[in-house]
Each structure stands twice: as C-alpha cells, then as structure tokens.
Amino acid sequence: MNRIVIVAAAVAVAAGGGAAVSASASADARGPASPVAAAGIAWGKCEVTGPDDPMNKAECAQVPVPLDYRKPNGRKISIAVSRFKHTDTKNYQGALFVNPGGPGAGGLAYAPALARWLGGVGHAATAAKYDIIGFDPRGVGASKPALSCDPHYSDPIRPDYVPGSAKEERAWIAKSKKYAQDCAKRYGWLLPHMRSTDAARDVDTIRAALGQRKISWYGFSYGTYFGATYATLFPGRVHRMVLDGNVNPKTIWYDSQLEQDRAFEHNIKAWWAWTAKYDKVYHLGTTEKAVEARYYKARAEAKKAPIGGRIGPDELDDIVLSAGYNTGYYIPFAEALSRWVNGRDASGLLDWLSEGGDDNEFAVYNAVQAADAKWPRNWSKWHDDAARLYKQGYRFNTWSNVWFNAPVAFWPFQGGPALRLNGRNAPGMLLVQSTEDAATPVAGGLEMHKVFPRSRLVFEVGGKTHANTLNGNACLDDKVAAYLDTGWLPGSRRGADAYCKAVPAMNDPDPTSLSAKSARAKAGKDLPVGRP
After folding, report:
1. pLDDT in tens, 103-150
2. pTM attached to this predicted model
3. Which of 140, 169, 248, 387 is most exposed, with the fewest beta carbons within 10 Å of its own?
4. 394-425 in b/e burial notation, b at 16+ Cβ within 10 A?
5. What are the residue numbers of the active site?
C-alpha cells in the first residue's frame, strides 16, 4: 500500500462550551463525553507518494482531540481522517467508519478501499449510500504524533524466537525490556492515554466534527473490540455496526495470545497438509508430517545460514505465518518455500521479507494492549505458559507470540482494568465469524454475541481466513450488504443465527487451476495480515 500523508487539513473544535464535559473511564455511557465540533472539518487533498492514487480522490484532514479526555482543555494531539463521499443522496445513510484492526494498523486508505470491496462483490450501491470514513487511530501513521520507540527493533536478522538455552531467552528478555524503556523515554507522556477507550472517544469527537448524530462502523479483527468499546461507551450513537473476526472480550489481552497459539498451530498444519496434497507441484512431502518436518529442517538451516543472507528462522516464521491468517497465501508461500528447498532459489521468500525500519504499528500494538488491561509482570508466568504450550505440541506460534508481546511485561505502568463491555443498550449489529479463524478464534464470536444481546451472529463454516467478509463469499457479502442497506438481520437462533459455508475454491485453492501470480494478487484483499 502506498504511504499516505495529510495536506492542508484542519478542524475547528471547541474544547469548552456548554455541551462539553470531562470524559473519564467511569463517564455515563449515554452522556456527551467528547468535545463538540464548532465548525466542522476543513477537508483537503490526500497527498499520495507513488504512481497510483489508492485514495481515489478521497478527502483528508487532521482532527485535534484531547490527549486526556479528563482534561478537555489541555494538551491536544491529532487524528488523521479520510472521507470517501456518498453519491446516493436520496438514500444517504450517514457516516460509516472503517477500522482494519491491529491495534496499530493505519486506516486512511480504507475509506476508498471499503467502497472498492463492496463494489467488487456486487454492492457498489451500498457503498454509495455512505460517507465512508477512514482514520489512523491515535499514535498511528499520519496521526500526530506517530508513536515510534526503536524503528530498527524488528530489522532482520533477529535472535531465534524459540530459545535453545537460558542465555538465548535472556537475550530476548533484555531486548524486550529495552524496547519498553525506549517507549517510556520517548513517549511516556502519551502511553497512559493509548487505551481503546481513548481511541473510541476520538471517534466520537470525529463524529461530532462531522455533524453526525450517529455513526455506522465496519471493524475487522481488533476493529471488532474497538467498535464494541465505542458501542459500550456511546450506545445511543450507533446506527449500524459490522464486526468481522471477533476478539474474545473474556480474554483481553494476555490470554488471547494463548488462544492464538493453539489456533495457529491448527491452521499452519492445515497449510502443510494442503501442501502435501499437491506434492506433485511443490515436492515438499506427501503427508502433513513430512512437510512439517521439511519446514523445520529449513528453519534450523536458516539459523545457521540465513536464506538469501536475510531470512533467519524468525523471518521465515513471520513470512509463512500469513498462511495461517489467509488461505490466499497458500499458493505463493508454498511456491516460494519449494523454490528454496528444492532449488536454493531464495527470491520467492525474499519477495515477502519485511525489511524493518519502521516500528509504528508494533509500538502502538504494545502501547494499546499494555494500557487496556492488566498483564503478568512476573516473567516466570510468561515462560511457564509458553514452555507448557510448546511441550504440548503448539510449536509454530507460541514463542513468536511471546516476543511480539513481551515489551508489555516491562511497560512503565500496569494497565487496566479492561473495560467491561456492555451491550444492553446497543442496537442490533451484525457479527461475522469464520469458524477456523486463528487470529480471533471462534469463541470470540460467541462471547461477543452474548455481550450484545440484540446482535446476530453469522458463522462461515470451515472458513480458515481471518475476517473474511467482502472477499468473494456471496453468502456472507450479501448479508453484510443487506444489513448496511436496510438494517436487515437474520432471525435469532440458539448459538449462531445464520450459517454460510466457506467457498471451496478460496478455502482450499487448487494450484493447478489458479496461478500463483493471481493468488498473490488476491492474497489479503489489501488487508494487512497481523495480530488482531
């Protein structure tokens, strides 16, 4: 995705005034809890670096918001916002905010992207009814400031995720601790204000600046928890809400990582089994166990001699992890791994290597989760849980997940308590959940459904791709469009309220009929693949 920056944009926001009140964590969820916009948003052009215009002539702006909503007249930061305007004036439905997840993923380009995706699955008329609002949440991307603690923290080649000795584990602990210290040193003033509740209040400030009484929301992955937070704080300001790939509200956040470890083991084994099914194409083994063994052999070799001089064991894990998120990566990753294992051609894997040099998303991910909830501060808890899972056979993602979150163990303050989501006063919303989603396992959809009693839950049965709406499953996509069009929801049933089968051609792709080139083009439908 091209990098996007904001040009010539501002908003006049009255920090005071009769309608503005202080917003603390215990503020009345039904009361006004954001500064009120006095003059609206002054939209400008979105400056795009690169030959294309992913913004499709959308408008962009910076919206000032309070750093601390308990002090609305105090220090301000700003949120980068984009708008892709409606064209169907007769059937106008208001503002539709979209969030791609993370936490830490940028969302500016998602305003025109969501319109493209809806149009791509036959529902352009639905997109035309909304002003689609993309935004970079506080600390992210083009918002100011953009959180960064050590831009080279994840540069290749990193120490092996899986510690082969106490010394190797201590090296990662020291690395993680220093990252937390760097964050505290550079942005200690911002970190306590990175809770999801703060970001939700930013959304409400933007809503007021837009002059909208209510908003709609389309949230993927962490965007489901983000949206649910908004609906808890401001239930009367929700028009419609689609939550796809639901975070489990009972496991915020440490326990959610343990859930992921189990689920990703299942999904990566599914990829290895798929690869074995097409051994005549990839020559990596005729059984799932054979492919698994060949992968771990390549991983061990990469620790001794990095692939292409750039890909160690961690980098290899990070690349193929995406196959556990999205079956669209099955073909290109199997092809790339085969080229290396069978021909020592590293080019395919190198094409997918993240070169590092930017830690914004990683920094925000840790900052939000650290502020949102209480985490174990005793390292023995982290070690023992990881060692137990690894011994039980959950090898692939367990230790990498530890180190992805480990800076939180050394954060400058203990976060939480986590917001208790409350959907009693929220309107009907549409929840979508793939039953074999590894990033947000299926229990999350069921628990979110309990929290929001007027919601309806749709299962994509057998679906292994994370947050899979608007990706070509007509059964899912038509339900989403019907809800956004008219508010239609399926009837209430015990458990899930409606079911859609995963599309075989997408969920179990055939490399003999679909080229790796087209698979690569489809992979991810422009959505970033990363932890929720």
Report:
1. 999 999 999 999 999 999 999 999 999 999 999 999 999 999 999 999
2. 0.91
3. 387
4. bbbbbbbbbbbbbbbbbbeeebeebbebebee
5. 221, 437, 466
